[in-house]
Specification:
GO terms for molecular function: ATP binding; ATP hydrolysis activity. By secondary structure, the chain is an alpha/beta fold. The protein has one domain (2-247): P-loop containing nucleotide triphosphate hydrolases (Rossmann fold). 39% of the residues lie in helices and 29% in strands. The protein is globular and about 55 Å long.
Length: 249
């Protein structure tokens, strides 16, 4: 589903990704862990098409398409979702307005009919309930005045509404308390655990993985994958730290 081959990328002339190779087939949740500055967020930005990140070498294939040849909105329409470590605030735009426009824009790009107002409201309420987010919060401006946990729940509601084929989630557990962490983790499972979907889950900590239970775990260091294993690799990292584990890589 997602195939990254020898990917090199830089920002402001500084190389961040340095020959990263990774493949995530359909039906797999693949966790990426690594120390600060390893290139985890850069990887998510490159996949999402954020301006300023220049790919200098390598390729990324998504469902048979050249992902790097697509504009960000085309990547979204193709089924790629990017969850941010720090979701942005959009004053003056309600969540409902934002999400309805986003969903119907993607449906139009796929040749599907737009949802009516009633159909969309039902879908939004269903997904908000799944993430235990008060539906009234969807009437508020996007992320304005939201706590860290509320922002992450709202972003997972967005993912549920857009129903992507593949999700790249950049430190979704950042800023979550124990209860919110479980709700968000269970939401990821409910929305994305599907034989036809895939997830690249970037995290620092093993605690989210206790809920989501990835199929594979990879360590990213100095811009490339240095080790891949099963869920037990995250437990090893938690107990021994990056230096000890990467010394064996």
């Amino acid at each position: 589903m997602l195939k990254i081959d020898n990917l090199h990328a830089e920002i402001d002339g500084k190389t961040i990704l340095n020959g990263l190779t990774l493949e995530v087939p359909a039906g797999e949740v693949h966790a990426i862990m690594g120390p600060n500055g390893a290139g985890k967020s850069t990887l998510s930005y490159v996949l999402g098409g954020r301006p300023g990140y220049e790919v200098t070498q390598g390729s990324v294939e998504f469902n048979g398409q050249d992902l790097l040849d697509l504009e960000p909105h085309e990547r979204a329409a193709a089924g790629l979702f990017l969850g941010f470590q720090y979701p942005v605030e959009i004053p003056g735009v309600s969540n409902l307005q934002f999400l309805r426009e986003a969903l119907n824009s993607q449906r139009k790009a796929r040749g599907q009919e737009a949802l009516t107002g009633g159909e969309f409201l039902k879908l939004a309420k269903d997904k908000a309930g799944l993430l235990k987010l008060d539906p009234e919060m969807l009437k508020r401006h996007v992320n304005v005045g939201f706590s860290g946990g509320e922002k992450k729940r709202a972003e997972m509601v967005q993912m549920g509404i857009l129903d992507p084929k593949f999700a790249v989630l950049d430190e979704t557990d950042s800023g979550l308390d124990i209860d919110a962490l479980r709700v968000v983790g269970e939401g990821i499972n409910a929305i994305m655990r599907d034989p036809a979907k895939g997830v690249l889950l970037i995290t620092h900590y093993q605690r989210l993985l206790e809920v989501v239970k990835p199929d594979k775990v990879s360590i990213l260091s100095q811009g490339r994958i240095v080790r891949t294993g099963g869920p037990e690799l995250a437990i090893e990292l938690e107990s021994e730290g990056y230096d000890a584990v990467m010394a064996d890589a």
